[in-house]
């Protein structure tokens, strides 16, 4: 009987070790799978579109013509009359990718810098004579770094 009594705790320990080992193995597998899956997904996902285009033509309401732009993915954004956080919203940028003709230094925005890109919004919301031309804070545009290399600074009005 003592043999049975001693064997039972050893069997329980062996069973516990096996269960712990199996649990550890499945936890390790579970931790590795999402990383592997996301790495595979990111390897097949297209890179964000962001490049400078030459030979384009955009003329704003002030009569300035731009023959170069930044063509880049972006988030839906408000387009401001001036590069100021609390400025007047004159349009909405709803499409992506979009184009941006130049950059200007303005108010510090949520992205942690002062770079604002000049563009024409998709939907005019205020000041219809401006035809949606205004500024989008850089954090709404998929650029790195800001200002994006090759994009000219906006000329003073």
Q: What does this molecule look like?
A:
It is a single chain. The protein is of the alpha+beta class and 157 residues long. It folds into 2 domains: 45 residues; 91 residues, no CATH class. Helix content is 27%, strand content 30%. It contains 1 helix and 9 strands. A 3-stranded antiparallel β-sheet has the order 1-2-5, with no helix packed on it. A 3-stranded antiparallel β-sheet has the order 3-4-8, with no helix packed on it. Strand 1 and strand 2 form a beta hairpin. The longest helix has 43 residues. The chain is globular. The N terminus is likely disordered.
Shape: globular
Order of helices and strands: HEEEEEEEEE
Which secondary-structure class do the elements indicate? alpha+beta
Taken as a percent bin, the fraction of beta residues is 25-35%
The count of DSSP E runs of length 2 or more, i.e. the number of strands, is 9
Brief rundown of the structure:
Residues 1-39 form the signal peptide. The chain has one helix at 2-44, and strands at residues 50-59, 65-72, 77-80, 89-93, 98-100, 102-105, 115-120, 123-124, 133-137.
């Amino acid at each position: 009987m003592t043999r049975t009594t001693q064997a039972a705790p050893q069997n329980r320990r062996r069973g516990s070790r096996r269960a712990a080992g199996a649990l550890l193995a499945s936890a390790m597998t579970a931790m590795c799978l999402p990383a592997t899956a996301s790495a595979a997904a990111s390897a097949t996902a297209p890179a964000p579109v962001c490049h400078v285009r030459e030979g384009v033509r955009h003329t704003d309401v002030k009569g300035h013509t731009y023959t170069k732009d930044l063509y880049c993915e972006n988030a839906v954004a408000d387009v401001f009359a001036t590069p100021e956080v609390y400025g007047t919203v004159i349009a909405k940028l709803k499409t992506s990718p979009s184009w941006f003709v130049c950059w200007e230094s303005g108010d510090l925005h949520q992205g942690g810098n002062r770079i604002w890109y000049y563009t024409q919004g998709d939907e005019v919301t205020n000041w219809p004579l401006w035809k949606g031309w205004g500024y989008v804070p850089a954090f709404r545009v998929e650029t790195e770094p800001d200002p994006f290399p090759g994009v000219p600074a906006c000329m003073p009005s």
